[in-house]
Every structure is written in structure tokens, then in C-alpha cells.
Design brief:
Blueprint: H1 2-17, E1 23-30, E2 39-48, E3 52-60, E4 64-75, E5 78-92, E6 100-111, E7 114-125, E8 136-141, H2 144-158, E9 184-193, E10 197-203, E11 212-217, E12 220-227, E13 233-238, E14 245-252, E15 261-269, E16 272-280, E17 284-292, H3 295-302
Length: about 300
């Protein structure tokens, strides 16, 4: 009898000390290189009893609004939440985007008087359960004040998810004439660009066959293992304005089911777009050269 009472008391104490995370949480969710965008707003509405359930709300201005129901569990300070394909409440995205059905792996922690859920997410495409989404990070706070405090103090851990290639102390010159990963760089085209902040979209212009590429800027990795599909993969990057000529390499990690590795690259330079068809194999790596000429220089040379 005494042993039974001790067990009941132990369970009662555990219930008292277990953290209840019910309520609304405010935060940010990121996506790594190759994703549609690097940062979204996020809210979780949580109800916790023996298990957890609720809704996730992710949005980016008026362009994206995604609300999906989830279930989950909490063990100690660890929280795992699973969105469900059958619980999509709202799905507003551009025509060439696809929502992700996400799994959140979060940890509860406190900092001063603020409570946070922080961790990572992974997921699968809503339209193709065999296609993994590019994962990212999650930060949530019980209050907007707590979220803002986190973003001010540790913004680099949330917002800076892409390799931005910071400008070095002195210009770095790369020998573009040497081989690259046992392949020969093959020049496809040279494009004159006028902005330091650029974007590229990669998609398959033929039948998708699991082609995978990695993108390098001046022989430094920009995005790793991007699977080429009809859904464009977006990569944002910044070039060093003190270097005139930059090399963009698309290295074939595999040749897909139908060699060679084929893709369409769209370079976005401000309001200008340049489309390039790419073919790479295990002997040759497609090379695109970007010649940086800011608008002020362009005006001077045109006089």
C-alpha cells in the first residue's frame, strides 16, 4: 500500500512539473538554399493535454498563406509536431510553388521571463510524398516581445540561413582555367549583371528524372544537392562587387535516369531575367560567367 502511494505521488509530482505549452506562439520559419524563400512568419496554436494538437499558420506577406492542422507529443522539454496532408485548412501560394507538410522538432526553453520553442523542421511536398522539402529552422515565443528580443540578440541564427559569400578583406581571384572536381568547366554563356544581389531558379526543362546538381560560385559551394524538378528551386546569393568576373558552376552530382544532367537556369538580376539551358555530365561541368557592371559604370561607358 505504501509503495502504491509513492507511485501515485511520483506521477502527481511529474504532472505538476511538466511544462504546458498550450496557447498561441509567435515566430519565424526559415528554409535553406534551394527553397522558395529564406524566411516566413509563423504562428502555432497549441492545445496540450495528454497529447498536443492544433494549427500551424505560415505566411509571407500576401503571397503565401498556409494553415495546416497537426498533432504531436511532448517528452520532457522536447516537442515533436506532425502536420497532416488531410488537415490542410488554407493553401495560398504562387502557381509554381508547392506547400510542404512539415514535421517540427522543437525544444522548450526559458530566457529571463520569456519562453521559447526552438528547433528545426523537415517535410515532404504536398503533391508528391516522395519529394523531400528543403528543411530549415524554427523559432517561436509566447509573446511578440519575446520574439523581437530574440531576433535582435540572435538574428544571425534565424535570418542568415543562406551562404551570402561575405566580401573578403581583399578581392579573391580564382583561376577559372583549372579543372573542377575531376571535370572540365565548359563555358555556356557570359551574362552582364548590374546588381550584387542576385537570384537563380533551377528547374527541369525536359522530363524530370531525378537529376541532382550542386551550385558553386567562384569554386565555393553555394547550394548542395539540388534535385531538379518542374518546381523551381530558388537560390539567392551576393557577389563581391570588387571582382568583375564571377564563375557560376553547375556540377552534376548524378546523371538521373536519362543522361546527361539537364536543367534550365533563370538568372534574376533586378527586373531582368536571363534563361540558360544547362547540360552537365561526369566529364564536363556547365560554367556561366557573370560580368559585374553596376548601372553607374554602364552610364559612363555609354556616353
Amino acid at each position: 500500500m505504501k509503495c502504491f502511494l509513492i507511485i501515485l505521488l511520483s506521477i502527481f509530482v511529474q504532472d505538476l512539473t511538466a511544462q504546458n505549452i498550450s496557447g498561441k506562439w509567435f515566430g519565424k520559419i526559415t528554409q535553406g538554399p534551394g527553397g522558395y524563400s529564406e524566411l516566413y512568419d509563423l504562428e502555432l496554436n497549441l492545445t496540450q493535454k495528454k497529447s498536443i494538437w492544433g494549427d500551424s499558420n505560415a505566411w509571407m506577406g500576401k503571397l503565401v498563406r498556409i494553415r495546416i492542422g497537426f498533432s504531436g507529443k511532448m517528452k520532457g522539454d522536447s516537442v515533436k509536431l506532425y502536420e497532416s496532408l488531410g488537415w490542410i485548412r488554407e493553401d495560398v501560394v504562387p502557381w509554381d510553388w508547392v506547400a510542404c507538410i512539415k514535421t517540427y522538432e522543437l525544444a522548450f526553453r526559458t530566457d529571463a521571463s520569456y519562453e521559447y520553442l526552438e528547433g528545426t523542421w523537415s517535410g515532404i511536398s504536398k503533391d508528391n510524398p516522395n519529394e523531400d522539402c528543403i528543411p530549415g529552422k524554427v523559432i517561436l515565443s509566447r509573446s511578440i516581445e519575446g520574439l523581437n528580443r530574440f531576433l535582435v540578440q540572435r538574428k544571425d541564427s534565424v535570418i542568415n540561413t543562406l551562404a551570402q559569400n561575405p566580401e573578403p578583406e581583399a578581392p579573391v581571384f580564382v583561376d577559372f582555367n583549372t579543372n573542377f572536381l575531376n571535370t572540365e568547366p565548359k563555358k555556356v554563356t557570359e551574362i552582364e549583371v548590374h546588381h550584387a544581389d542576385l537570384q537563380i531558379q533551377l528547374l527541369d526543362y525536359m522530363k524530370p528524372d531525378n537529376d541532382t546538381v550542386s551550385v558553386y560560385l567562384n569554386r565555393e559551394i553555394l547550394a548542395k544537392d539540388i534535385r531538379i524538378s518542374k518546381r523551381p528551386a530558388l537560390i539567392k546569393f551576393r557577389i563581391d562587387k570588387r571582382i568583375e568576373l564571377h564563375e557560376l558552376l553547375l556540377y552534376a552530382e548524378n546523371l538521373g535516369l536519362i543522361p546527361p544532367n539537364t536543367s534550365e537556369l533563370i538568372l534574376i538580376d533586378g527586373e531582368s531575367k536571363h534563361r540558360v539551358l544547362i547540360v552537365s555530365d561526369k566529364q564536363k561541368t556547365a560554367a556561366i560567367y557573370l560580368r559585374y557592371k553596376p548601372f553607374e559604370n554602364k552610364k559612363k561607358t555609354s556616353k
